[in-house]
Amino acid sequence: MNTLINIIVQGVLLGALYGLFAMGQSLVFGVMRLTNTAHGDFIVLLVFVLFALTGFAHLPLAVALILLLGIAFGAGYAVQYAILNRVSSRDPLPSLIVTFGLSIVIQNVLQQVFSADPRSVATGSFESQSITVAPGITLGYLPLVTLAATVVLAFAMQWLFGRTPLGRAFRATSDDREIVQLMGVSYRRTYALAMGIAFVLIAVAAALYSMRTAVSPTDGPALLLYAFEAVIIGGMGSFWGTFLGGMALGIAQQAGFYFDPGWGIWLGHIVFLAVLVIRPQGLLPKTA
Amino acid sequence: MSALLETRGLTAFYGDFQALFGIDVTVAQGEVIALIGSNGAGKSTFLKSVAGLLRTRAEQIVYRGEPVGGAAAASIVGKGIALVPEGRRLFASLTVEENLLLGAYCKRPGRWNLQSIYALFPALQERRHHAATALSGGQQQMVAIGRALMSNPDLLMCDELSLGLAPVIVREIYAALPAIVADGMSAIVVEQDVQLARRVSSRFYCFQEGRVSLSGLSAQVSDEAITQAYFGVVT
What we know:
Chain A contains ten helices and two strands. By secondary structure, chain A is mainly alpha-helical. The model of chain A has no long low-confidence stretch (mean pLDDT 92).
């Protein structure tokens, strides 16, 4: 019994990280129908920006984290405005090719600058501290912080989209980007803002991920895969769907890890494929 | 009366295809003009050009003495030009009220707000939390008009308000027009129904194959002259 609870609890904690990876992807796809194949590499890129801030510039972690959020927003805005807006159209192929190219560029630049060694961000001993809630069930502080961050950000994104003028502009731009201009909304600027916000989500994910494990420059595609799987399992409808998708993926992987350390990732893929076959619209599809 | 909007030899293209060949149209402050003409004559293209959705040369469109041709569409509405697009084009993921609120995105001050729109179209108030595209065609058209009015325009452009609507609904919608333009707003109305267009406007322009084939005072022109200009028939 404790084993089952442990699998679910640890799965939820792992899933929170995947949900966080996926939320930026969900936002980008929701607003501009852009399938960003460089999403995982953007996460890795921001991880290395954090390394540079703490390792080379020797900034305190808290200062570096705040700077990272600002840098991420600016970088996301700039990437969308200067590059991705040029290939944004009804045809998905040009943007796929450009983000695929960005993915290759980021991996190679990072290898050139930082070498291929995996690194992680030192947090003192925070990443190894935990609390034991019941016999056999131990919760790490870092995974708990990750879960809290994911829940707070899912609430924040749902509020931003549902209740604010900017969220209305996002949804309307997604519906009809020609007509939205007649309301005074520049879709180019809206897209850039959406990517900026997506990059802030990516930065939070990157910071928490780099504290949890060592990251190497070529880890991006694997992270992209988890993000994709979480988005598709959850359905394209809402950020809560993405959140749920991350949870489902995390629990599946954790269950796999219990049987055999080699089965975790594999069982996650199996659950993803099963959802695609049985419920291709995802757990929480768009209702409207 | 001074000209609010003036187009001078306006040309417009869809790729290599030229849709407008030098259109001269003037709209005075507080004036309602009608654009008539058959399908493909260039009426909608003209409105899209003024709204900035199609690229034009700067000096071809003059608004309040300022050349605005080729300006970004998103900046045109802030100057006081609003378009009710053909086929309504409401935002499907937004409710009625959210569609209206988005119309006020540019934050121009004026007499139009949610209250005054609901006073004009009471049917919208009770359905304000419904998805905009779940409404009847006539109510959707009211939302589209309301959305344009929420930007408090000085020039309202309406593209085929009657499209796909029953005649009784069309009459109901046009009955609101006098109240809308009562405070001196100008309007350009594109309409297939020539008699209706003449009734609501003081002047008209008849388009044919991207050129103005006839223009004049709506009350004075003869039906024969319009028929000839409309179809290009030589009698």
